[in-house]
Amino acid sequence: MPEFDIGPSYALYARYLHPVQGHRGRNLFDPAARTEFATDPWLITATQTLSDLRAAGLVADDADGTTLAPVRGLLVLPDSPSEGGTPVVLIVHGQAPTFQPRTPTAANEVPSYRGYTYFQRHLASEGIASLSANVNVVNSFSSPMTDDDHERRAQLLVLHLALLSALSAGSAPSGTPLPCALASGAVTLAAALADAQPATGPLTQLRDLVRAVSDVELDLTRLGVMGHSRGATTAVEFAERVRAAAGPASGPATFTPGGPPQVVLDQRANVESLIQALGIPQPGHVKAVVPLEPDDVGPYPLALPDGFLLAIAGSHDEDVHSSAANIYEGATCHKALLVLHGATHGRFNTVWRTLPSTRRLINESVRCQAPVHIMSNATHENVLRSFVGATFVARLRGRPEELLILTGERRGPSGTDVTRSWRFPNPFPTPVISLDSGITTVLLNGLSGTPASVRLRDLVINRYRPFAQDMTVLRVARPARQPAELVVPITADQLNGMTHVSVRFAKEYDVRSRRARAIEPLRNFELALFTENGLRIGRALPGSRVPSVVQRAYPVWKWTDRDGPPLCYDDTRIFLQTVEVPLALFLRRTRHTPSDLGRVRELRLGMLPVTKPGEDIFCLVDFLLTHR
């Protein structure tokens, strides 16, 4: 499979917006701004950083003195075109040192973008091209949560996509903001690709690249995007900007208290205008978005017409926490969430895991564990190839059955333990029907009551917030030795064409207590279907028979020295997970037939009595009917 490390020798750059902090509308990469605010403390530091990057060959200057950002990365192509054209995945890494050692030279640049080569090769073997973007020009200035870090990465993703579009077409529209910095001076990419230019140096490499890209017939209307860490949030931000760019142009939004900083709003408007000028991508082109261990929770609605979200969290992530779970909660598209027990942050990137700072964090976290349950380097790679690879193959190659690995109906790689949530039909875009709004009744001791609606973030046990997600759920608390039933109404037509029923749930308990983890029953429930007259249709399905339930709460200890002396701290969390069963399973080995499902008017979730002190508490949400 052809691989192209598009580096300095290709001499590809782009016009790029890096806002000057405190001076709205001014660009660090504009020499006039650097002159006008030369005494500004932030600009003095930033200008020195820019000078270091220029000396190391990471940036270059145009003829008018405008500093240009590099467009670089690793492009991996399949050996031959896929049927109907070759789809593309864009990959963006997160924060890491730009140089290691820190002396800013080309030889010391940390190639974070090469850390997913094993995954790119896997995609190529499945007929999918991928470009992993080098965003070190962002890392050099990064100060997340206070500036436009994610949006600047998204800006670079759009520029890399513009490069692929130009390479695929063999020419670039005149407005494409991608100069090629030749020894004789910067020329437009359109001019660089034109036959009139002599094919020497970078132009020879460019034209070789054009031929290779042309051979595989890229299809940029089938696009996936994956990011890791800050790059994970960037992947979601990129999709949001694509959606917004398809709407009417409105210019930058105005800051409101509690909202994103003005610099973020301005950069979002810049990215959207760039997408509009290039004409790509359209919202319907983005088929899959994969934030791998993101650093921000959003919210990101991701209202993409044909999009799919796979959010991934690692239980032993030494850098970020459970942001992926809350990105999942905010998304309105079809989606899935994987919590990988034993996954770290740095081991997914083969470059990062060799850095002294990353190795130190991982090794200290390993020493905190009792017992140690951290995935090996090889298992991290297998997880990416299997779960994420299947997602892109399903969405970009038209093989929807591959998504069943996300529900547990297809096995994942050995050595992995996964808590899952999902909400998607098969095939797309079959609707998913929510039953939550009709739930008003819980039955306890023959009496009818109303289930409590609570926000998981507000639940505290022994001064600890045990839940990873921040969302509103139904909470049913009852004496542990007494049964209860939650009644979920179903109307006459809702089961038509549906094949599965599901709910997301978690038990509430002191997850940090070893004894509580050992005795907490996690499957003491059953599901049953009833007519409006209380006649049960088929049989009740006990939780012990539901294969998708693999809920466990592993003790997780992490290491930190950020806010004081080094210490190991408890970060054990409870995640909601999906329980799903086929409707046909209720009928198996009973006298009822599929036609009897038309008489169903209630789904009842029975909470079974257990022997333990105090209350037994269920947290429930997302009662769904799905076709697969």
Explain briefly what this protein structure is:
By secondary structure, the chain is α+β, with helices and mostly antiparallel strands. It is 25% helix and 25% strand. The strands form six sheets. A nine-stranded mixed beta sheet has the order 1-5-7-6-10-11-12-13-14, with helices on both faces. Strands 15, 18, 19, 21, 26 and 28 form a six-stranded antiparallel beta sheet that branches. It has a six-stranded antiparallel beta sheet with strand order 17-16-20-27-22-23.
What does this structure look like?
The protein has 628 residues and is an alpha+beta fold. The protein has two domains: 3-423, 3-Layer(aba) Sandwich (Rossmann fold), CATH 3.40.50.1820; 433-626, Jelly Rolls. 25% of the residues lie in helices and 25% in strands. The chain contains 14 helices and 28 strands. β12, α10 and β13 form a beta-alpha-beta unit. α5 crosses α8 and α8 crosses α9 (262-278). It starts with a strand and ends with a strand.
Task: Note the main attributes of this structure.
single chain; about 625 residues; alpha+beta; Rossmann fold; Jelly Rolls; 2 domains; nine-stranded mixed β-sheet; six-stranded antiparallel β-sheet; 14 helices; globular
The CATH homologous superfamily of the largest domain is named: Alpha/Beta hydrolase fold, catalytic domain
Report the mean per-residue pLDDT as an integer: 90
* Strand segment count: 28
Shape-level CATH architecture of the largest domain: 3-Layer(aba) Sandwich
Work out the radius of gyration. Answer: 26 Å
| The CATH C-level class name of the largest domain | Alpha Beta
Which structural class matches the secondary elements? alpha+beta
Strand order in space, largest sheet: 1-5-7-6-10-11-12-13-14
Summarize the main sheet: 9 strands, mixed
Categorize the overall geometry. globular
- Count of individual domains: 2
Q: Beta-sheet strand percentage? A: 15-25%
Helix content: 25-40%
How far is the N terminus from the C terminus?
Answer: 35 Å
CATH topology of the largest domain: Rossmann fold
Unreliable stretches: none
The helix tally amounts to 14
